[in-house]
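Fig. S4 source data, part A: sequence.
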Amino acid sequence: QVQLQESGPGLVKPSQTLSLTCFVSGGSITTNYYYWSWIRQPPGKGLEWIGYIGTSGNAYYSPSLKSRTSISRDTSKNQFTLQLSSVTPEDTAMYYCTRMRTGWNFDSWGQGTQVTVSS
């Protein structure tokens, strides 16, 4: 069974770049028909999809975050990374990495990591 684990700093200063890595075990990130996604949940709000990287290495982002987001991968380490630039306190959230199947079916989730943007 695939397992995902987020890693990264819990505190980021405004205007800096948030960088999180998701380590995947029990399955390859190059397996066809899976998309490796980042999702966040700000305090008191619903889930927000950030973007995903597909098995071909192509990445797609939420239009509202596209200008500040980059998702990349390292297939040799079976991990993928989120970078969100120019963060503000509004980017404070619990961040999750997930595996998604066709049809926006998120079938595996990491435990989540809290990121706070504050000076």
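Fig. S4 source data, part B ends here. The chain has a mean pLDDT of 96.
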